[in-house]
Here is the input.
Amino acid sequence: MTTTDSAAEARELALASNAWPFQEAQRILDRLAGKPPAKGYVLFETGYGPSGLPHIGTFGEVARTSMVRRALQMLSDVPTRLFAFSDDMDGLRKVPDNVPQQEMLKQHLNLPLTRVPDPFGKFESFGHHNNAMLRRFLDSFGFEYEFQSATDWYTSGRFDGVLRQVLENYDAIMAIMLPSLRADRAATYSPFLPLSLKTGRVLQVPVLEHNAKAGAIVYQDEDGAKVETLVTGGKCKLQWKVDWAARWVALGVDYEMSGKDLIDSVKLSSRIAEALGTQPPINLTYELFLDDKGQKISKSKGNGLTIDEWLGYASPESLALYMYQKPKQAKRLYFDVIPRAVDDYLTFLEKFSTQEGRERYGNPVWHVHRGRPPEEQVPLTFGLLMNLVGVANTEDRNVLWGFISRYAPGASPARNPLLDAMVPYALAYYRDFVKPTKKYRAATEMEREALTALAAALRALPADADGETVQNVVYEIGKKYPFASLRDWFKSLYEVLLGQEQGPRMGTFFALYGLGNSIALIEKALNGADMAA
Here is the structure.
């Protein structure tokens, strides 16, 4: 088989996997119809509003877009680029709650973000500060992208052509926008937001005249005076729905994602792009994240999770997996989803080593790791590791590794870096979320009899009995006593021994903790000792 044949077969297998990034990539290929864009590459775009710091939604959008880009690179030889575009010429509309020098910032409301002083005192402006945070944020995850600044595009003249187009199509754009606006807003609406020659502020004021031939507008300034200005050269910016469309036109954007809350905006911006003679990009609408109460996550409310909070308890790969899974389905984004996300990641990673062909391309870790998942197999789940942390009553990594290496001979921090990285995450998550909720209860008389029998059965096993052997013993003990079901037997073990309603596969847990330690744990419960101590 030739290299070409091999590549073609791989592409067929990738498409057959039905993984959503490949489906999105195929949409792009269908639009290209076998011809690369005139500009010579497919352009992906993600947007960023630098009035605040990068957040978990920023990560999700760039991560998902990068997955589609990687899928397209797998299916086609057409070059690709990804622009992370910052709308940093937007006016500062309100002062974020999480930044210093609140009073100073209030004095600069409505100035372009790249003209607002940096409250942190480190950069040329607040916009430059947040742009630097965005780049550092994206670089820390290894994303491949090209940063773009709206201020640069407007002031350098690279937007001048599309600004003239908007002016030439002023009436058509107004006809698209006005029906979508409230009456009071429609009365003063204009696609152009002039920058005041007197104050430098981005003005939302009536445009009294527009002259396409002169490339100028006349607007009523804040003091009531009439002012004529060119729309080019950074003297005006566009209202954001028009700005979004103009960006698609000027840059030649082929693909961009957006949240469900922007569905109407996508429709309007697409119509404007068409009015400007350009086909709008392919769009994927993703669902929004919800907090622990099922409410939409809001930056201003501060509900839900921040990126730093997730990364305090789990790896970036687990977060990328969470973003990969079912992007069109609303999902809760709160602390309690983290353990499941970590264990899902480990499960997919384990499966990948045994898979071939389309199954590999359909495995989320192929997309999380850009086609090259690590080969390490992790012998413990995150949940099991947290239970070990709880009963071992230690935050010493060496002590925990003593349990792990006995359970999985040959395992070590050097040989198992993924597992080693999980240990501090498990310690932190257990300390902050599991330990405060533990509620131990005393065993009933029947449960005491079953636990006594279980301790005796564990004593009869070899010290190195594996988890499956121990699990069978636990099952057999449960069957001998009048529990309503084996599920009730295991629930008893969780509540009496671990202080929680749900727990691990107990045979595996006992094997990990060690049979001697497990017997001591059971006896501690039988003797009425303080299990939390």
About this structure: The longest strand covers residues 42-48.
